[in-house]
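Hallway conversation turned thread

IA: we were arguing at lunch whether anyone had actually written out TusE/DsrC/DsvC family sulfur relay protein end to end. Turns out nobody had. So, for the record, here is the sequence (103 residues) and right after it the structure tokens. Reply here if something looks off.
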Amino acid sequence: MAEKVFAGVTVNVTEDGYLTDPNQWTKEIAVEIAKEEGIELTDKHFEVINFIREKTLNGESLTIRTIGKSGIVDTKGFYQLFPGAPLKKATKIAGVAKPSSCV
């Protein structure tokens, strides 16, 4: 397990860079992780991130389809917000575990 410093806070991360403790997450940390992923966060990003945190911290598993049906953003919009690997990037920025559906 590695440590990384985001927004002046040392956090534990997996080898893929996901926080090991979602309770260490802050919006400031999210902004720095997003910068590493080449994403500048907007209010819409945070709506999706908050949805992801709420669902995963309640023990629900997420898919791209789940997020597309959230009412926050459709699937195409999700890909636009988090280009390339939207679920991987969004969960990483949200400070939750990497979904099992992501390789």
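OS: looked through it. Residues 37 and 89 are 7 Å apart (CA to CA).
IA: good, adding that to the notes. The chain has a mean pLDDT of 93.
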